[in-house]
Amino acid sequence: MSLQEQSLIGRPEITSIRMLLAVDSDVIRRVLSDFLRDEPLIEIVGEAKDFTELLKVLALKPRIVLMDLHMRDEYNFKPEFVRSELQASVGHVLAMSHCYDDEAVGLSNSYGASLLLDKSKLITELLRTVEKLCA
């Protein structure tokens, strides 16, 4: 039984957690997608490789967006604009970064992220974090 199945057992109102992956690296996005698809309570509803795609797929109404803070952005969207779009469509934003410093924390906050995850610890922390946010 998965970590989430154990902790959410007896909560019939939670059938699945709709998640969107917004990561510019094809490899990392594929690894995350494969990892999360094995979790019975997580449903990957969409993927985006840049902010333009992210804004389009928000129409899928995910509960959580897992977003790379340093994703490509050819149109230079302002974090405040992205934040307003995310807040209108999503329950929680989980930001991830290869560094965990004041700059990353500030950028994470400007996007309205609920939490900032360190990419080097991502796999071990991700399921616990999703569970806490959706409890």
Unreliable segments (pLDDT under 50, ≥5 consecutive)?
1-11
Count, helices = 6
CATH-level-4 superfamily name: Response regulator
Q: Please give the domain count.
A: 1
Tell me the fraction of residues in β-strands, as a range: 15-25%
Counting DSSP E segments of at least 2 residues, the number of strands comes to: 5
Lateral arrangement of strands in the main beta sheet:
2-1-3-4-5
Distance between the termini: 18 Å
Helix and strand element order: HEHEHEHEHEH
Which descriptor suits the 3D outline?
Answer: globular
Q: Give the C-level CATH assignment.
A: Alpha Beta
SS-derived structural category: alpha/beta
Q: Would you identify the CATH architecture?
A: 3-Layer(aba) Sandwich
If you consult CATH, what is the topology? Answer: Rossmann fold
Helix content percent band: 40-55%
* Average of the residue pLDDT scores: 86
Short description:
The chain is an alpha/beta fold. It has helices at 3-8, 26-37, 51-57, 79-89, 102-110, 122-134; strands at 17-22, 42-48, 64-68, 92-97, 115-118.
Provide an overview of this structure.
- There is one protein chain.
- This protein has a single domain (3-134), classed as Rossmann fold (3-Layer(aba) Sandwich).
- Helices cover 43% and strands 21% of the residues.
- It is built from six helices and five strands.
- Strands 2-1-3-4-5 form a five-stranded parallel beta sheet, sandwiched between helices.
- α2 links the parallel β1 (17-22) and β2.
- It is globular and about 35 Å long.
- The model is unreliable at 1-11 (pLDDT under 50).
